[in-house]
Amino acid sequence: MQLRVDRQGRISCIYGETIDLTMLGKMSIRRASHVEPDEAGRWWADLSPLGGPKLGPFPLRSQALLAEEEWIERCYFA
Questions:
Q1: Total count of domains within the chain
Q2: Which residues, including other chains, have CB under 8 Å from residue 75's CB and lie 6 or more apart?
Q3: Which residue in 49, 15, 19, 51 sits closest to 35, CA to CA?
Q4: What DSSP state is assigned to residue 8?
Q5: What is the extent of the structural domain holding 33?
Q6: What are the average pLDDT values for consecutive 10-residue runs of the chain, which has 78 residues?
Q7: pLDDT computed for residue 76 by the predictor
C-alpha cells in the first residue's frame, strides 16, 4: 500500500485494509473511478473523477480493477 503525503501533511492512497488508516487521523474517502460493465458485459474503468481516461474494455472485472489501480499508481504515486 502506497501512501502519498503532501506538503500540508495530507495523506492520499488507494483505499485498502492493509493499514488501519483511522490511526493516521480523520479520513475523507472519495471515489477515484467507476468500474462498471457495458451492455455487452465488458468492463470499463472510468477514471473521470480524477480527470483521467476511460480504460477498457476488459473481459473480466478483475482486469479493469487492475488497470484502474495501475493508472492511479502511475499518475499519482510515481
A1: 1
A2: 50, 52
A3: 49
A4: T
A5: 4-76
A6: 90 89 90 95 96 97 96 86
A7: 80
On the CB side of 51, how many CA atoms lie within 13 Å of its CA?
2
Q: Are the C-beta atoms of 45 and 33 separated by less than 8 Å? A: yes
CA angle 32, 24, 14 (to 5 degrees): 20
Locate 4 and state its grid cell. 502519498
Cell representation of residue 18: 492493509
Q: For position 54, what pLDDT does the model report?
A: 98
CA proximity to 63, closest of 47, 44, 39: 44
- pLDDT value for 15: 86
CA distance 77 to 3: 8
- Cell of residue 48, nine digits: 473521470
